[in-house]
Amino acid sequence: MADEATQAGEDDGGVATQERSDSLTVTDNRTGESFELPIEDGTVRAMDFRQMKVNEDDFGLMTYDPAFTNTASCRSEITYIDGEAGVLEHRGHSIESLCENATYLEVAYLLIHGDLPDKTQLENWVHEITIHTYVHENIKKFVEGFRYDAHPMGMLQATVGALSTFYPTAKNIDDPEERHMVAVRLIAKMPTLAAFAYRHNLGLPYIYPDNDLSYPANFLSMLFKMTEAKYEADPRLTRALDTLFILHADHEQNCSTSAVRSVGSSEVDPYSAVAAGCAALYGPLHGGANEAVLRMLDRIEKVENIPSFLDGVKDKSERLMGFGHRVYKNYDPRARIIKKNVDEVLEATGTSPKLKIAVELEKHALEDEYFTSRKLYPNVDFYSGLIYEALKIPTDMFTVIFAIPRTSGWVAQWLEMSDDEETKIARPRQIYTGARELDYVPLEQR
Ligand code: CMC
What we know:
Bound molecules: carboxymethyl coenzyme *A
Order of helices and strands: HHEEEEEHHHHHHHHHHHHHHHHH
Mean pLDDT: 93
Structural class: mainly alpha
Strand order of the largest sheet: 3-4-5
Number of strands: 5
Low-confidence stretches: 1-17
Radius of gyration: 25 Å
Largest sheet: 3 strands, antiparallel
Helix content: 40-55%
């Protein structure tokens, strides 16, 4: 093949033709052999390197990419990100337009089904989600078994995983009805599981879902309802929460979504796969960052301490949580929207001293060469914690609240993955660096 390309290039005046060819010519300098690899959608297939061998017994060349920083693991139609330009779109709709015009449940429908719903479709979808918010009473007993101070994210992981035992037919992953019900049940029950975890920490009775309320208002009711007959949420706060839900709904192949796809590729039931997503999200470099931001702002304590804190970041004894992103090398578009929302929420709830520290911290960092040269900008987690705090949600719950909307993204990605003809069980290779063929030394001689 390489020979053909070279031949065509020479006939047509060389370089010009080669530039037009959607292929990559690789010369293996160990053997002098050349290979032409097709380029499709800006990628070459890692398996195409396997043919490059030094001899017949050689396994063939592999690509090495710890943390998958330059490896596309799938084709997806769900979420588009241009990290350099700070663009985020779901199924072609910009995040700005969705936040301005849609509700979270509409966006969840969009992610799962591929298009925005019409009026009837939306009504049916909202109805279905609403009537599936209850969980089996045994889940309540299960939550009661946790220690009073169990982290709610640990409880969420466990209860989501446990759902697979309540819906064993979900393992029929090719059955269209089961697939639909997984999406409905997970999106519907996630706020209930999250609220039960919260009430458990406080030793308060669990509040059952209220089917008269919207998705975000029902969640606030399950968190905060006390003796009143009906919980009345401030509409400014339910809208702010719904916007946060939209902003967190999906973010293509991030750590937790890759976990869902990877675990799901074993053809385990989707509740177990989503429980793996919860586990990945829990980490402070991922969904746990919003919690870490608030703890960081607490530690900084006052504006005067910002310069010394940033010195600590620069000498790497600290990390500026809520800053930086693997994909965005520009302002995270979600952070821009959240920042606007903070003011609206604080107008309803009263000001937060931490907001002043956050705004100053951002300003200092964006004027500092350390951060600008590394293209470190605020990400979605920098300001979201301030909204959660203003909503009187405890810090431990922040990642749980991230998990609620991300569920629609996880399910959409799981559905897409299991429909993809190229899906195989995820199974990376390794470069073995350990010892080989050692003699066993008896215990008494070691
Ligand atoms: N504070 C200080 N330095 C940073 C930060 C930060 N937040 N993020 C990156 N850097 C530095 C890093 O030390 C490295 O510097 P050097 O070249 O001197 O070694 C350089 O910037 C490149 O960083 P990296 O670690 O190669 O970047 P990454 O793509 O592996 O990491 C990240 C991405 C999000 C894990 C990282 O930026 C980070 O730890 N941020 C703080 C945690 C955070 O806010 N996470 C939420 C991400 S958004 C929500 C989500 O998707 O969950």
